[in-house]
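Write out structure tokens for PilZ domain-containing protein.
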Amino acid sequence: MQDRRAAPRHRVDESAVIAVDEHRSIACLVYDISASGVRLTMPDTSDVPETFLLSSRHLADARVCVAVWRTAEEIGAAFERPAA
């Protein structure tokens, strides 16, 4: 199987928050992260929009993410802008 990732991912296992809008957020776990994206786990991904704001202690600033793939409990997302 060929790995198609643009950058290597690093295991994190750290809590984070997805901002759905200015009044609602969803807790999640950052499973792994790279310079170009992130894999998140949570009990249910159905309320997470295609584009969302992710905040985590592992990130210097909140990052805009775009969902690339999803299952019932995981989302693979690309950062809108790669880390500087």
